[in-house]
């Protein structure tokens, strides 16, 4: 267990820890000279339990609240210290508000310096403390009158802390490792050392980690957990790590950085949160207010954008977006505390819902519905509410980072469906996935009704017509399933419903019978539309209309404007391209020109047509066949 102190300056926090543990915590020269705690202090001791307990001593002065926040983010139990002679003071209230905002629900109160006051004063301050705690989540926390000088009450407080250690819920070890760095220093003969609280997972000597948000890779050379040398450390412990990395220097690491497993490395500057403004505030919080944002051990400036309304009254709750002035690391459920622009007072705080928030004001109502779904505590709680609105599905890798939940620990709801796409797997609700396929078929039916003379649209046109809101990879997955299920058929590049065909009228059939021999006889060099019209003594527009209709049927392919090739001829040319790649490894325009015995311009036109229909892909002045091309597969089968 990690215990952190809280309370007003000079209320005896450091002296109390010495009385409890028999040890003097970290004391800097300036602190000894001034007689106050300025930065975080650390010590480890056994209170009677098997494992050592870690203690974090925080400064009580109002100027050092940012240091207090850096230490308080990782504690399991707070020891709120109130001096009997002073009673409840301003930093008592502010520290308590911060503890509540951080979601810490385990607390004991030490009423110190009882050796300086009479019994009635002890009763009076005890009543003050009970009144202070009553409105909040720590109401009923036990109060222990103690004296660090005489030792009175210390044994009872120590016993209560041991009981709390048994009751504190263990942090999740099945997540990826993440540690909030609160100190970084260099040790002669050892190198760079960082310390902090492990929030999740476990780490071993030899592991590779990322320094977030920078993303620099480091290796763990040595470990201390709870001040003891070990080979492995776990969530809930104070950990010191000796790090090695290419040209790694202590100056490159700051308080507020994180050590995370590579799977969690993803810096962010935009966080969607649920935010509460303290009731003690004297005025409304306005949209776009500049603030100090405390996240883990980091203190970063930024602005708060309210997603519901232009201002928030004291004691109010709202969904908001934080826009940070520097990159940060966060996962769902992390606690944030906001202080005013001058860092003089605490405004409020909340919980991270989405650490990778999209730009605000886009589809605001839909976004608010997503944030309401994200208000649950676990991935299992959230997925059933989140899946129905995810038209493009949910990306498992992003969810893994967002919630710090490795895939093997997930329990997907029965209605979840995992679909493979060209961008990797996506999760859909079964009903949503079925709706997308039905929408595609219904849109194609409307297309046929509005364009009866067309066989159907190509892939990209159908996407724009039917499902423009889908990412291309998701649309292609929907289309592939519809094709495999027989809901949609493809004739060349054209997509249509089963049974839908374009039929030539009698006049068009007669004209086709006259021009088709001319197209076949010319083989790789068919006549242009104007030449066909001249040869047959037919209006040019009639020929053009018929050839376009035949291309929609799939009997012809239009290479460039007014130049049409029979589909069989295109397939012969595709065979030439495949043979060229088999022999030379690549396709070059000059070699293709010589093989088909056409001019350079026509050869380039044909190769560019093959690029467009997905047979080839160009790399500089060379091309290679795309193995996922249906035309290439058909040609190889032949």
Automatic annotation (TrEMBL):
Which molecular-function annotations from GO does this UniProt entry contain? GTP binding; GTPase activity; RNA binding; translation elongation factor activity
Where the record annotates domain Tr-type G, the positions are: 1-171
Listed InterPro entries: Beta-barrel_SelB, EF-Tu_GTPase, EFTu-like_2, Elong_fac_SelB-wing-hlx_typ-2, G_TR_CS, P-loop_NTPase, SelB_WHD4, Small_GTP-bd
Subcellular location(s): the record lists: Cytoplasm
One Pfam family in the UniProt entry: GTP_EFTU_D2
State if GTP-binding is listed as a keyword.
Answer: yes
Domain of life, per UniProt, equals Bacteria
| GO BP terms in the entry | selenocysteine incorporation
Q: Does the keyword Nucleotide-binding apply?
A: yes
Query: Which PANTHER family does the entry mention?
Result: ELONGATION FACTOR TU-RELATED (PTHR43721), GTP-BINDING PROTEIN 1 (PTHR43721:SF9)
Q: What does this protein do?
A: Translation factor necessary for the incorporation of selenocysteine into proteins. It probably replaces EF-Tu for the insertion of selenocysteine directed by the UGA codon. SelB binds GTP and GDP.
Q: What is this protein called?
A: Selenocysteine-specific elongation factor
What organism does this protein naturally occur in?
Stutzerimonas stutzeri
């Amino acid at each position: 267990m990690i215990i952190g102190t809280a309370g007003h300056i000079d209320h005896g926090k450091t002296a109390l820890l010495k009385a409890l543990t028999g040890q003097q915590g970290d004391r800097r020269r300036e602190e000894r000279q001034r007689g106050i705690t300025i930065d975080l202090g650390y010590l480890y001791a056994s209170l009677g339990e098997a494992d050592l307990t870690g203690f974090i001593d925080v400064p009580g002065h109002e100027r050092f609240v940012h240091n207090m926040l850096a230490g308080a983010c990782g504690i399991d139990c707070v020891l709120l210290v109130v001096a009997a002679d002073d009673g409840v003071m301003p930093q008592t209230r502010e520290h308590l508000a911060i503890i509540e905002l951080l979601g810490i629900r385990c607390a004991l109160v030490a009423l110190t310096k009882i050796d300086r006051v009479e019994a009635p004063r002890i009763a009076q301050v005890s009543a003050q403390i009970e009144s202070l705690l009553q409105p909040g989540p720590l109401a009923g926390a036990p109060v222990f009158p103690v004296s660090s000088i005489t030792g009175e009450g210390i044994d009872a407080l120590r016993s209560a802390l041991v009981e709390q250690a048994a009751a504190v819920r263990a942090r999740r070890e099945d997540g990826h490792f993440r540690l909030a760095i609160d100190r970084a220093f260099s040790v002669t003969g050892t190198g760079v050392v960082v310390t902090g609280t492990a929030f999740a997972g476990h780490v071993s000597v030899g592991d590779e980690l990322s320094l977030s948000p920078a993303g620099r890779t480091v290796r763990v050379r040595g470990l201390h957990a709870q001040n003891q040398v070990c080979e492995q450390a776990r969530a809930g412990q104070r950990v010191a790590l000796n790090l090695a990395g290419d040209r790694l220097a202590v100056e490159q690491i700051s308080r507020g950085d994180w050590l995370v497993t590579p799977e969690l490395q993803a810096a962010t500057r935009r966080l969607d949160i649920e935010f509460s403004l303290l009731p003690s505030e004297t005025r409304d919080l306005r949209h776009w207010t500049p603030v100090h944002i405390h996240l883990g051990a980091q203190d970063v400036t930024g602005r708060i954008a309210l997603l519901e309304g232009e201002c928030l009254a004291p004691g109010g709750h709202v969904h908001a977006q934080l826009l940070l002035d520097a990159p940060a690391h966060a996962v769902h459920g992390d606690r944030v505390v906001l202080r005013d622009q001058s860092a003089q007072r605490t405004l409020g705080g909340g919980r991270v819902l989405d650490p990778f928030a999209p730009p605000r004001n886009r589809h605001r109502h839909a976004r608010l519905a997503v944030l309401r779904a994200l208000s649950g505590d676990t991935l299992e709680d959230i997925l059933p509410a989140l899946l129905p609105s995810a038209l493009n599905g949910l990306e498992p890798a992003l969810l893994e980072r967002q919630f710090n939940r490795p895939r093997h620990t997930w329990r997907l709801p029965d209605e979840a469906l995992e679909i493979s796409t060209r961008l990797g797997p996506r999760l859909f609700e079964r009903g949503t996935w079925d709706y997308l396929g039905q929408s595609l078929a219904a849109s194609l039916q409307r297309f046929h009704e509005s364009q009866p003379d067309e066989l159907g649209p190509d892939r990209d046109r159908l996407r724009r017509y039917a499902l423009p809101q889908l990412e291309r990879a998701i649309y292609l997955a929907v289309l592939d399933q519809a094709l495999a299920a027989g809901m949609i058929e493809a004739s060349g590049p054209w997509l249509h419903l089963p049974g839908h065909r374009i039929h030539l009228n009698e006049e068009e059939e007669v004209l086709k019978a006259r021009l088709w021999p001319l197209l076949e006889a010319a083989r790789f060099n068919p006549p242009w539309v104007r030449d066909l019209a001249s040869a047959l003594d037919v209006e040019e527009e009639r020929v053009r209309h018929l050839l376009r209709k035949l291309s929609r049927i799939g009997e012809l392919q239009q290479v460039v404007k007014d130049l049409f090739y029979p589909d069989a001829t295109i397939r012969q040319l595709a065979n030439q391209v495949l043979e060229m790649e088999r022999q030379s490894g690549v396709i070059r325009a000059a070699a293709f020109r010589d093989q088909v015995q056409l001019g350079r311009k026509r050869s380039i036109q044909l190769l560019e047509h093959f690029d467009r229909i997905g047979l080839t892909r160009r790399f500089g002045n060379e091309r290679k066949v795309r193995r996922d091309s249906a035309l290439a597969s058909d040609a190889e089968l032949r």
